[in-house]
Amino acid sequence: MIEPLDARERRGYQVELLLVFAMTLGLSGLRSLVRLLDSLLNPVPLNEQKVAINVPQARFDLLDLLAQLLGVVQLAAWGGLGLYLLWRGGVRLRALGLDRTRVGPDALGSLGLAAVIGIPGVVFYLVAWNLGLNLAVQPSTLDESWWRGAVLILSAAGNAWAEEVLVVGYLITRLRQLGWREGTALLASAVLRGSYHLYQGFGGFVGNVVMGLVFGKVWQRTNRLWVLVVAHTLLDVVAFVGYSLLRGRVDWLP
């Protein structure tokens, strides 16, 4: 049961939401929009342009490794910030579904959710790219190195943690406390998720809005955030590691 907020608490949560997302994924959404506009102003068609997700950050191997790990730490901190603010407000991790009481069912749910999103998602991306609605997305352009696989897995986990904690657990909880309807909060969460994927093109936006609607609805019904985090991690691991292994070896990948 969500207790009603007084005017001071409402203003506090509204300012908190603005600040959190101005520092994290909301700002990423605005930057992503700018990148999409830049791509649209380019005379080269969208599907002939490329955009990479995991890219080298330094010329020297060990410095690149350090830079990649710092990026993972940043993502972990973003998710941790959302959890800390909820905890300070009296929300327990168990209420979000971040406890260890349902490891088996959560794991099975994650596998099923990853399959439901992942297989149609690949098909949708390829269709959008062929229709000229998407850039060619390269999940990884990291050079071959002894640490590449581990870093890509950590990057996948970091992305999943930051996104699912902030965009689902934190945002929807705060919007509930502010009196938003479940459907409206779900839509806001999904559109935010789509916004920071705009740099990929219109297909990236629509595909991630759909993913956000599915993931958000699953959480609203189950309150099991681990299911979303693990499913998202699996999706990104397959995309990041799979692409790095197949890159240049198959002709159907952009």
TrEMBL record:
<feature type="transmembrane region" description="Helical">
    <location>
        <begin position="108"/>
        <end position="129"/>
    </location>
</feature>
<feature type="transmembrane region" description="Helical">
    <location>
        <begin position="12"/>
        <end position="34"/>
    </location>
</feature>
<protein>
    <submittedName>
        <fullName>CPBP family intramembrane metalloprotease</fullName>
    </submittedName>
</protein>
<keyword id="KW-0378">Hydrolase</keyword>
<dbReference type="Pfam" id="PF02517">
    <property type="entry name" value="Rce1-like"/>
</dbReference>
<keyword id="KW-0645">Protease</keyword>
<dbReference type="InterPro" id="IPR003675">
    <property type="entry name" value="Rce1/LyrA-like_dom"/>
</dbReference>
<dbReference type="GO" id="GO:0008237">
    <property type="term" value="F:metallopeptidase activity"/>
</dbReference>
<feature type="transmembrane region" description="Helical">
    <location>
        <begin position="225"/>
        <end position="246"/>
    </location>
</feature>
<feature type="transmembrane region" description="Helical">
    <location>
        <begin position="65"/>
        <end position="87"/>
    </location>
</feature>
<feature type="domain" description="CAAX prenyl protease 2/Lysostaphin resistance protein A-like">
    <location>
        <begin position="149"/>
        <end position="237"/>
    </location>
</feature>
<keyword id="KW-0482">Metalloprotease</keyword>
<keyword id="KW-0812">Transmembrane</keyword>
<feature type="transmembrane region" description="Helical">
    <location>
        <begin position="198"/>
        <end position="219"/>
    </location>
</feature>
<dbReference type="GO" id="GO:0006508">
    <property type="term" value="P:proteolysis"/>
</dbReference>
<dbReference type="GO" id="GO:0080120">
    <property type="term" value="P:CAAX-box protein maturation"/>
</dbReference>
<keyword id="KW-0472">Membrane</keyword>
<keyword id="KW-1133">Transmembrane helix</keyword>
<dbReference type="GO" id="GO:0004175">
    <property type="term" value="F:endopeptidase activity"/>
</dbReference>
